[in-house]
Specification:
This protein has helices spanning 2-17, 25-28, 82-93, 129-138, 221-231, and strands spanning 36-39, 43-50, 56-65, 73-79, 97-99, 105-107, 111-114, 120-127, 143-151, 156-157, 163-172, 175-178, 186-189, 196-204, 212-218, 236-237, 243-245, 248-251, 257-264, 273-284, 288-289, 295-303, 313-316, 318-319, 342-343, 350-351, 357-375, 386-392, 403-406, 414-430, 440-441, 443-448. The protein is mainly β and 449 residues long. Strands 2, 4, 5, 7, 9 and 11 form a six-stranded mixed beta sheet that branches.
């Protein structure tokens, strides 16, 4: 084959060089190369079907080329038998390919007639998604395929590009869901929460040929409880009457996405804390609601004022107190200086070596704490990982954690919400580190009233 192609190329070059010579086309180029047919995008092609109740259409294109593509040509489209597929594909590849049943697909035509003006022919291949889905369910271990081959009784077909081997990757039911899941928590100062309009994008995950409508509702408080358990957060439902939204959103044919506007009345937030509004797609007029993108949690943090830490003291079960200026002691997290820090013992300090570490702050009087913030140590030592917050009235009975945290490895002030809790003492229990057993913090802030 390679020699024939080289020969053809040489003949065509000679022909162009001898434009007015006595040699004509028929003498230079063998007749089988005057017109050659091949399948565009030949070979193995993957195809995902959508269970919409309508046939899926794949367009097969056959190209006519050669030294004189103005000649007429004829070709046929054939479906390979199971025996041929086993011999050519299944056995060599050790893959269980199965040919689609005849009733699960149809060809627009099996016969192709090229006029002198035709340089290509397109044929629509229709695949019935419902019937293919039944085939897959009947034999899920098989790889279902539609193997097509172009042949001709009269004309040359490129043997390397004469087949289209369509592999069905699956039959998917179209889903309606929220296109983006925001992890942002919008923070506002207590008493200064404005009216907010949140614009949420809803969409279909395939081309929309239908007029769809989506019904929306607010998910139950159980969703928030599960979210808190999974993420170590303390969100509570937004106050009743603080929000409004359209309970019905349309997705007209030809549009993939639509907008849902949710309005939040900031004046209704009378207590600082972390709040969530989990907006849920309840139902859709056709197809299915996404199992993973069906809830959009709008999250707001209403910050209490930052408490004055003057006079507060700190202790720790592990601290490095022998460095210059006793840098490393627990009370350094209260001095307002980002250049100083608490550090777990590393040489001759006091306390235990190894996690967990506990820092206890004495605020000298009771406060209702609503948030805490912490700053990692600078200089490339952002090593504190995750942990828990506790609040106590006597410094002995700590009860259950009122909040959890996972710090990022940066030197920004990182705010964490807690269950609003009244007490005098705060305990920060550090459970993990980004740097072996070493932990440090530059500052700890508290918010409340």
């Amino acid at each position: 084959m390679r020699k024939n192609i080289i020969y053809l190329a040489g003949c065509l070059m000679l022909l162009s060089a001898c434009n007015n010579s006595k040699y004509d086309l028929e003498n230079l180029v063998p007749q089988e190369y005057h017109k050659i047919l091949y399948v565009n995008n030949s070979g193995k092609q993957e195809m995902t079907l959508y269970d919409t109740g309508e046939d899926y259409t794949y367009t097969l294109s056959v190209i006519k080329t050669g030294s004189d593509p103005t000649l007429t040509a004829n070709a046929q489209i054939n479906v390979l038998s199971q025996e041929e597929v086993d011999q050519l594909y299944s056995n060599p590849e050790a893959v269980n390919y199965k040919v689609l049943s005849e009733e699960s697909f149809s060809l627009e035509t099996a016969d192709l007639v090229f006029t002198s003006e035709d340089h290509s022919k397109s044929v629509n291949v229709s695949v019935n998604s419902t019937k293919v889905k039944a085939l897959i369910e009947s034999n899920p271990e098989a790889k279902w395929v539609l193997p097509l081959r172009v042949t001709s009784q009269t004309d040359s077909v490129n043997a390397a590009k004469n087949e289209l081997f369509l592999q069905i990757t699956g039959v998917v039911t179209p889903n309606v869901g929220f296109f983006v899941q925001s992890e942002e928590v919008k923070g506002f100062l207590f008493g200064e929460v404005p009216s907010i309009t949140e614009e949420i994008e809803i969409g279909l995950d395939t081309e929309n040929k239908w007029d769809l409508s989506c019904e929306l509702e607010i998910e139950s408080a159980d969703f928030i409880a599960d979210y808190n358990d999974e993420n170590g957060t303390v969100f509570q439902m937004m106050p009743e009457g603080s929000y409004s939204f359209d309970e019905l959103v349309s997705l007209p044919a030809g549009t993939t996405t639509s907008k849902l506007n949710v309005t939040i009345d900031g004046s209704k937030f009378t207590i600082p804390g972390d709040y969530m509004l989990p907006v849920k797609i309840k139902s859709v007029s056709q197809f299915a609601v996404s199992a993973t993108m069906n809830v959009y949690p709008i999250k707001i943090r209403v910050m209490a004022k930052e408490l004055d830490r003057t006079g507060w003291t700190g202790t720790a079960n592990s601290e490095e107190t022998t460095g210059e200026g006793s840098n490393g002691a627990a009370n350094k997290v209260l001095d307002g200086d980002l250049g100083t820090y608490w550090h777990s013992i590393w040489q001759n300090g006091s306390g235990q070596r190894g996690l967990p570490y506990e820092i206890v702050l004495d605020a000298k009087q009771n406060y209702t704490f609503t948030q805490f913030a912490m700053v990692q140590r600078g200089g490339g030592f952002t090593d504190t990982g995750s942990g828990e917050f506790y609040v106590s009235t006597d410094g002995n009975d700590w009860g259950e954690p009122v909040g959890r945290f996972t710090m990022k490895q940066n030197t920004d002030k990182q705010v964490f919400g807690i269950i609003p809790t009244t007490g005098r003492y705060v305990k920060i229990r550090i459970l993990s580190s980004y740097r072996d057993q070493n932990c440090s913090l530059s500052e700890v802030y508290a918010y409340g009233k």
